[in-house]
């Protein structure tokens, strides 16, 4: 229907925003690069603080708790735990702000 009284895109049928169920190869490559850059920043800051004879509790906790990019399994790199999903996993690209918030740890066994 056209004109002033046309229906909204949702009422017209179909999803308004379509998001593929898996990440593309370039998306995965960019995601790996982001993980590597974060690891590099953490190591540079840690070395600089160590050189100055200082340490920060958050940096030390990050190093002990969070795995580096090369230590992570592909399943953990590209998917996250979600209790509402069928297999308890969903693609990381479906998480809001997934490029800015770290999702490196999942519950044990998932």
Give the arrangement of secondary structure elements.
Elements: H1 25-51, H2 57-65, H3 74-78, E1 79-81, E2 89-91
Antiparallel strand pairs: 1-2
- The class by helix and strand makeup works out as mainly alpha
Specify Rg, calculated over alpha carbons. Answer: 20 Å
User: Low-confidence stretches at least 5 residues in length (pLDDT < 50)?
Assistant: none
Number of helices: 3
Strand content: 5-15%
The chain-level mean pLDDT equals 88
Main sheet specs: 2 strands, antiparallel
Order of strands across the widest beta sheet? 1-2
Q: Report the principal-axis shape.
A: elongated
What share of residues is helical?
25-40%
Short description:
Helix content is 37%, strand content 5%.
Architecture overview:
The chain has helices spanning 25-51, 57-65, 74-78, and strands at 79-81, 89-91. The mean pLDDT is 88. It is elongated, with a radius of gyration of 20 Å. It has 110 residues and is mainly α. Strands 1-2 form a two-stranded antiparallel ribbon. It has three helices and two strands, in the order αααββ. Strand 1 and strand 2 form a beta hairpin.
């Amino acid at each position: 229907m056209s004109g002033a009284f046309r229906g909204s895109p949702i009422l017209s049928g179909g999803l308004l925003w379509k998001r593929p169920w898996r990440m593309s190869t370039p998306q995965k490559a960019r995601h790996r690069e982001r993980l590597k850059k974060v690891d590099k920043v953490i190591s540079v800051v840690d070395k600089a603080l160590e050189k100055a004879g200082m340490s920060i509790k958050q940096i030390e906790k990050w190093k002990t708790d969070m795995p580096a990019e090369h230590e992570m399994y592909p399943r953990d790199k590209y998917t996250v735990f979600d209790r509402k999903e069928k297999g308890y996993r969903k693609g990381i690209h479906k998480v809001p702000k997934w490029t800015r918030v770290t999702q490196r740890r999942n519950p044990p066994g998932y």
